[in-house]
């Protein structure tokens, strides 16, 4: 949440920053940086109302994590090596963005390994948070929800691999935190298709869509398939 808030503050100043070196304006630099951050973190894109990436999850494979870290290191290096102007607004923009990127890099291993297990922002709860933020207004929105639900097994497998890394490195939460998270997961496992919040959008399927050819297809074909293959209790089982 700290990172989201700091980035939102930075975006407010992007349009007024002075030119960077090598012919690229500061506005273009920050816009390109922000767009790449959205591509790298689809859940964040959903949270800020950008829905181009609603059909996928962040790639948590080791190679993708390393690539994202290099991205922040490179962008921070470019920011530190350029002149952004002398106005108070220019200097504030640079200070906020630098703070955000430096904080991310300093806490990289902590965020990746320790905080994946947590009662509030653990990876098991982020699934529910992100699905809840997704719009459910038209066919494309429902296709995105379906795609994300069907991609959950890969998301879970990648997070389990991170937990294995955490155990190997000794970077783990205290027992009490792990036990409370297990209780949350056990509660999720007890949910069926009629009660899980992951399918809330389908239970409130718009009447106009439900009466259409696409609506009938989703309700009679896709929804039963999702219930059987992609949501708790099946997705969190070994």
Strand tally is: 0
Give the domain tally.
2
User: How many helices?
Assistant: 13
Biggest pleated sheet = none
Q: What's the helical proportion of residues?
A: 55-70%
Overall 3D shape? globular
Mean of pLDDT? 80
Name the beta content range: under 5%
Poorly predicted regions: 12-19, 231-238
Oligomer: single chain
* Pattern of helices and strands: HHHHHHHHHHHHH
The radius of gyration is: 21 Å
Distance between the termini: 30 Å
Topology (SSEs and partners):
Blueprint: H1 2-11, H2 26-40, H3 42-47, H4 62-80, H5 88-106, H6 108-114, H7 123-133, H8 139-150, H9 152-169, H10 175-189, H11 200-203, H12 207-210, H13 213-229
Helix pairs in contact: 1-5, 4-5, 5-6, 8-13
Description of the molecule:
- The protein is an all-alpha fold and 238 residues long.
- The protein has two domains: 1-106, no CATH class; 110-238, no CATH class.
- 66% of the residues lie in helices and 0% in strands.
- It has 13 helices and no strands.
- Helix 4 packs antiparallel against helix 5 (88-106), helix 5 (88-106) crosses helix 6 (108-114) and helix 8 runs parallel beside helix 13 (213-229).
- It is globular and about 60 Å long.
- Residues 12-19 and 231-238 have low confidence and may be disordered.
Outline of the structure:
The protein is mainly α. The protein folds into two domains: 1-106, no CATH class; 110-238, no CATH class. 66% of the residues lie in helices and 0% in strands.
Record keyword descriptors for this entry.
single chain, 238 residues, mainly alpha, 2 domains, disordered C terminus
């Amino acid at each position: 949440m700290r990172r989201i808030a700091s980035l939102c503050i930075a975006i407010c100043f992007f349009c007024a920053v002075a030119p960077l070196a090598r012919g690229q304006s500061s506005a273009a630099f920050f816009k390109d940086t922000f767009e790449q951050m959205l591509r790298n973190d689809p859940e964040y894109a959903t949270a800020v109302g950008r829905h181009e990436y609603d059909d996928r999850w962040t790639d948590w494979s080791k190679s993708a994590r390393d690539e994202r870290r290099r991205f922040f290191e490179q962008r921070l290096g470019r920011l530190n090596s350029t002149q952004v102007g002398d106005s108070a607004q220019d200097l504030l923009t640079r200070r906020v963005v630098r703070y955000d990127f430096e904080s991310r890099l300093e806490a990289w291993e902590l965020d990746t390994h320790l905080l994946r297990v947590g009662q509030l922002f653990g990876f098991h709860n982020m699934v529910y948070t992100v699905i809840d933020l997704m719009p459910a207004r038209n066919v494309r929105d429902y296709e995105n929800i379906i795609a994300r639900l069907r991609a959950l097994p890969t998301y879970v497998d990648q997070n389990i691999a991170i937990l294995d890394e955490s155990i190997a490195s000794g970077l783990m939460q205290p027992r009490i935190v792990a036990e409370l998270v297990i209780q949350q997961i056990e509660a999720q496992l007890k949910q069926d298709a009629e009660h899980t919040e992951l399918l809330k959008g389908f239970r409130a399927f718009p009447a106009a869509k439900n009466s259409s050819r696409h609506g009938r297809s989703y309700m009679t074909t896709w929804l039963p398939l999702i219930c059987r293959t992609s949501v708790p209790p099946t997705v969190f089982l070994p």
